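Deliverable D2.4 — example input (structure tokens):
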């Protein structure tokens, strides 16, 4: 699927306070099968952008166009929200199963798919736990499994690995790139981690501090499949340097989460 973001702007009204301008004139295309990472300072409108693409928020100006979305049974879109949005009354397994039920898959197929993705995100043994019984990272892995198991044409992810420890995060990055290379959805991936963006993506979109504008788009000429070894490739290191350079120009313009 090709997704065209055409001149998107969004401001929020907060009662009698001055409006907050979150996004200004965002123009960019997520190409068919492309992995596009978005980075930018906290509060610059990344989540707002993802919510607009997901159809959950209306932009004040501009539109989102979806092209070539013949699905052949694959769902159009799956989302991993920053707030995760797990169903508290459903277990880990039943949360993951939810979208598969909506797709109308029969029980046997659903159970098999759920098991596959529970193994993949390392949650075996926790199938029957409820969200309140999980750590933050485990909840995040449940939300990730729920979205990935749908095998959508467009995958929207908002900091899906931010709550994981460094080791698990590295393993999940490898799994994510492996799944992406196998199923080739179009991806919009928000992260605070520059190395993660460069490791996973085909291009990185850098947003300015609020109001978020397109500050730069960096195309990454790195081979796939991505492996750990790519992190010592001189090109990988130079992309990190370039992105840090672009972000440093913002000076005190924003705060950053974990790198
Ligand atoms: N529903 C809303 N009502 C009012 N203001 C909002 C709403 N959603 C977002 N905002 C404001 O819009 C701006 C952008 O928020 P957004 O959540 O998109 O940022 P972000 O880049 O995702 O930040 P972070 O990296 O911290 O997740 C912020 O100033 C926020 O306060
Ligand atoms: Mg956000």
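Example output (designed residues):
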């Amino acid at each position: 699927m090709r997704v065209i973001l055409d001149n998107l702007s969004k401001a929020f009204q907060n009662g009698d306070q001055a409006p907050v301008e979150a996004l200004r004139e965002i123009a960019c295309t997520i190409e068919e099968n492309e992995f596009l990472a978005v980075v930018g300072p906290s509060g610059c409108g990344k989540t707002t952008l993802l919510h607009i693409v997901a159809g959950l928020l209306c932009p004040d100006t501009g539109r989102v166009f979806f092209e070539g979305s013949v699905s052949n049974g694959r769902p159009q879109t799956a989302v991993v929200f920053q707030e995760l949005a797990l169903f508290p009354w459903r277990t880990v397994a039943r949360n993951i199963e939810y979208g598969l039920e909506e797709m109308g898959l029969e029980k046997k197929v659903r159970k098999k798919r759920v098991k596959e993705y529970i193994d993949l995100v390392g949650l075996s043994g926790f199938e029957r736990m409820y969200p309140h019984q999980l750590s933050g990272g485990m909840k995040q892995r449940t939300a990730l499994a729920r979205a990935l198991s749908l095998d959508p044409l467009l995958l929207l992810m908002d900091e899906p690995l931010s709550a994981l420890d460094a080791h698990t995060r590295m393993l999940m990055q490898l799994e994510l790139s492996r799944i992406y290379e196998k199923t080739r959805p179009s991806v919009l991936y928000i992260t605070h981690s520059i190395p993660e963006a460069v490791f996973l993506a085909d291009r990185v979109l850098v947003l300015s501090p609020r109001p978020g504008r397109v500050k730069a788009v960096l195309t990454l000429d790195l081979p796939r499949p991505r492996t750990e070894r790519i992190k010592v490739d001189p090109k990988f290191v130079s992309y990190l340097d370039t992105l840090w350079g672009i972000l440093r120009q913002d000076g005190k313009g924003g705060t950053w989460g974990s790198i």
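The first helix runs from residue 46 to 53.
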